[in-house]
Design goal:
Structural class: mainly alpha
Number of domains: 2
Order of helices and strands: HHHHHHHH
Number of strands: 0
Distance between the termini: 42 Å
Largest sheet: none
Shape: flat
Strand content: under 5%
Number of helices: 8
Amino acid sequence: MDHRPLLLLNRVLLRQNPHNVNEWLKRIKLYGEQYDEVIVMYTCAVQTIDPKICTGKLHELWISFAQFYDSNGKLREARYIYDKGTKVNYRHVDDLACVWCAWCETELKHENCEEAIVVRAGLAFPEHVSISEQTSLGISKCHGL
């Protein structure tokens, strides 16, 4: 099937709003099995999207990117993407928690229990922060933890 008209439409939509996560995910899906093109699109998406003004769920893009590498047998690259995804300044703490949880689940899927424990440490509350400070930071509202 010729995806050219869909790619052109998607290009127009991304020109109108380059921070639209859902349109980037649609564009990536249009490339299907073209491994190199998919990686280029993921890379372009994560470099283009501003987390503070994006529409859609940015964490889903990072998780999808990492899972793409994982599904192609490149766990080391998937870990790198998860690590980069944990450094994004998301608007909501839950989004960051989703990235950490997906990373941990990926490690468990590969039976890397030790690595999963290390990743899980990223989900722990800081020891030097009191409960009242956690509440003021919004950490207690994190439903993903």
